[in-house]
Design brief:
344 residues, 7-stranded mixed beta sheet, elongated, Rossmann fold, VC0802-like, 2 domains, alpha/beta, binds S-adenosylmethionine, 15 strands
């Protein structure tokens, strides 16, 4: 069985990297096929696993907009016959809408949606069309000559990423990354629900909120006690209870339990103070301090500016790079997202 993921196109690689990381850490027996940017199929899923995988993907992913279960892979020429051949009573709960999304295709969206809707009505009893907030969404996705016929069973909570933007939280301080990127970084760290995740530069807690919502136990620390307290206020506001916060300099970090993941956005640039550590030394000090606090198979996912060369610093401590992504912020700043693990 197959799941169709419609992804954000705001970055060419991060949405796929995030999906791959979630499939890996959740040990999904499935493979991933990239159809085009923004369209990925998770395939070879057994019927026993499909529901669980569907729920995991919709609960975790940040850079994916929609996930649908593919009913049939059709074509422009065979679409009407294929739609008519499906037993829609099995998929639709009282009312439905058909919506088509195109990727590299010029098919007539409105005509196809209407025709598909009328064929489904013809084939079923006691089922109605409801364009606004239907119980069931029949999603058609056209890519070149192929049309995927799919049904949406679980929604991703897209509104969360709007509602939890940094300025909408009770404790605000500039410099917190977007909730979507924070969620993506948590996922890139391959952490699972119930495991312990640390952010030693927690600031206002943006990363810890996303990790807490994924079900992790979270620990945050910051050299600034106002930030430490602010993180706790924001975590409480989001209903996250399994957390601890500490007021401390990253150099003093000594965890009571080795962590399964570290996800962090260290300070850089002129506006953030670094607890009297000069320039790039904050990264060096951070790598030294964090190593012994991480489990041997733990991943570290961190942000840094393009002009800092992390490689010699991480190698000196015994880390190696697993993956890296570049996000252009503006003309003079590219943010680098690195996924790092202990060298074997
Ligand atoms: C870029 S901000 C982190 C933003 C955070 N991700 C958020 O959502 O708000 C970096 C944080 O590192 C903290 N910091 C700076 N130097 C530190 C040090 N030596 N040890 C621990 N925290 C430090 C700052 O107080 C600041 O809150």
């Amino acid at each position: 069985m197959e799941l169709l993921c419609i992804q954000s196109q705001e970055h060419p690689e991060l949405p796929q990297g995030e999906l791959k990381a979630v499939m890996e850490c959740e040990e999904m027996g499935a493979s991933m096929e990239v159809i085009t940017e923004g369209l990925v199929i998770v395939k070879d899923i057994s019927s026993e696993n499909i529901d669980e995988y569907y729920r995991i993907l919709t609960r975790r992913l940040g850079y994916t907009h929609e996930v649908h279960q593919i009913i049939k892979t059709s074509s422009v020429d065979e679409l009407n016959d294929d739609i008519f051949s499906i037993d829609w009573q099995d998929y639709i709960d009282e009312n439905f809408a058909v919506r088509l999304k195109r990727f590299d295709s010029k098919v007539d969206t409105v005509a196809i949606e209407r025709k598909a809707g009328s064929l489904i009505l013809e084939k079923t009893e006691n089922i109605k069309v409801k364009l606004d907030k239907p119980n069931s969404l029949v999603r058609l996705v056209a890519f070149q000559d192929t049309i995927y016929i799919a049904i949406e069973k679980y929604h991703l909570n897209k509104r969360h990423f709007e509602e939890i933007k940094p300025h909408k939280r009770p404790f605000f301080y500039p410099g917190s990354m977007s909730p979507k990127l924070a969620r993506c970084m948590v996922n890139l760290s391959r952490v699972k629900a119930g495991q312990l995740l640390l952010d030693p530069f927690c600031g206002t807690g943006g990363i810890l909120i996303e990790a807490g919502l994924v079900g992790c136990k979270v620990v945050g620390s910051d050299v600034n006690w106002k930030m430490k307290n602010g993180t706790a206020i924001n975590l409480d506001y989001c209903g996250i209870t399994d957390y601890r916060t500490f007021h401390l300099d990253v150099r003093e970090l000594k965890m009571y339990e080795k962590v399964a993941a570290v996800v962090t956005d260290p300070p850089y640039g002129i506006s953030t103070s670094t607890g009297d550590i000069e320039g790039d030394d904050i990264f060096k000090e951070f790598f030294h301090a964090i190593y012994d606090n991480m489990a041997d198979d733990a991943y570290l996912c961190m942000a840094s500016p393009h002009y800092v060369d992390l490689n010699p610093m991480m190698e000196e401590v015994g880390f190696e790079l697993a993956e890296q992504y570049a996000i252009k912020m503006h003309r003079s700043l590219t943010r680098i997202i690195s996924v790092i693990k202990k060298s074997e």
